Amino acid sequence: MVKKVAFKTLGCRLNQFETDALATDFYNAGYKIVPFTEKADAYIINTCTVTNTSDHKSKYTISQAIRRNAGSVVVVTGCMVNNQKELLEQRGDITYVVENNRKSSLFSLVDAHFKGEILHPSDLKQSLFDFTVAEKGFHTRSMIKIQDGCNNFCTYCIVPMVRGRASSRPVEDVLQNIRQVVSFGYKEVVLTGVNISRYEYQDTGFEDLIEKILELEGDFRVRISSIEPEGFGDKFIKLFAHPKMCPHLHLCLQSGSDRVLMQMRRQYNLHQYLNLIEGFRSNYPDFNFTTDIIVGFPGETDEDFNQTCKVVKEVGFSHVHTFKYSVRKGTRAERMPGHLPEKIKHERSQIIRDIAEENKLHYRQSLVGKQQTVLIEKVQKGFARGYGEHYVPVKISGEMPKNTFNTVTIKGLSDESDPQLIGQKTSKSAS
Fold it and tell me: Residue 423 in contact with residue 395, Cβ under 8 Å?
């Protein structure tokens, strides 16, 4: 009888890439992939631990799988394992607990279990990049892992402890991964990792890698995942003149106060950050920036917070991932004075969210009357939905084939709670 396996991914796009690769392993071996809410023989939970909220979501998901599906194999992997491995193992109700550096071999563990063989997670091969090319995924676009780990050690961040030091994937492996997913029919690739701006393999840096990717043949476009604003200049900006590059960056800011940025041990100041923004906007006026903001960092004053609000308004980020500062044990920030009450963090978070909503509406309105090349992701009765090159959702009248590029003119915004651009098809590129 065919075994069923379900996946749940929490956290970043790097986790999404790894889950897609694991799903392909199971699919290729004859397993049936089912939604996480359905009955399955095995549940794979790829966890996140970047904040307290992430921990709570991961724990809730684990308990949900165990409570609803007695007798199923439950495998927990991801960053929470590297942070709380002993606690997870001591629970006694999780079948296997697998660390990040053994995640790529997770299929062999579950498959051996169903074959009655004895295999322990510690027996699995250790590798950061030995993941199967994701032919069977959960997304229209394909994540491409180019890097793992981080050497920055920001004072609030636990990622270097759970993902390890920075390591870059060999150039040819990255290029071959992209060739393969394009041959599978993917139209968009998303470069992802923990700190991709620090990619460096032998004599190839991040910008050099992108140049090599853009030289590849095929009808696809390139999107860059969350990135740190470190050391970029004109060369990086000029890369976005290439028609395959998507004019959007999720450029992490965290705070609009230089004093707080220094306390966070970020590798840039506000002047450098804003100069990079200006460099892009002077070349590509509609370029879309989204960002991360942490509110309530230890010692953050009203003045610090007001500076952040000012920057968020002035830059006009079309989306802001807003995080209330969360204590991570073992980090420098845990020992800093001036930890703020949750009430203040909550109030500041809401203020940023309100500004971000205004920014989003203003940016989307600015695209009305212009064209977008939309990659169709969902086809429903009478209309299709997808994302344009600026990473803004577009709703189009008419049913169009999924996973095709369609050029549309933006006529207005929908009346939904999260207004989407309304597009009218003008032409269609080769699919």
Answer: yes
The pTM (predicted TM-score) of the whole model is: 0.89
Chain Cα centroid distance, residue 36: 20
The 10s digit of each residue's pLDDT in 383-399 is 999 999 999 999 998 87
Burial of residue 277 (number of CB atoms within 10 Å: 0-12, 13-18, 19+):
buried
Radius of gyration of the chain (CA): 22
Q: Could you tell me which CATH number the domain at 371-428 has?
A: 2.40.50.140
CA pair distance 302, 241, nearest whole angstrom: 40
DSSP state letter for 123: G
Domain residue limits, the chain: 4-123, 142-366, 371-428
Domain 4-123: CATH class, spelled out:
alpha beta
pLDDT at 430 over 50: no
3-state secondary structure 196-231: HHHCEECCEEHHHHHHHHHCCCCCCEEEECCECCCC
- Per-residue pLDDT tens for 332-390? 999 999 999 999 999 999 999 999 999 999 999 999 999 999 999 999 888 999 999 99
Which superfamily does CATH assign the domain made up of 142-366 to?
Answer: tm_1862 like domain (3.80.30.20)
- The C-alpha atoms of residue 374 and residue 367 are separated, in whole angstroms, by 13
Summarised one tens digit per residue, pLDDT across range 300-321 is 999 999 999 999 999 999 999 9
Q: Do 4-123 and 371-428 fold alike per CATH?
A: no
Tokens 């212009």 belong to 370
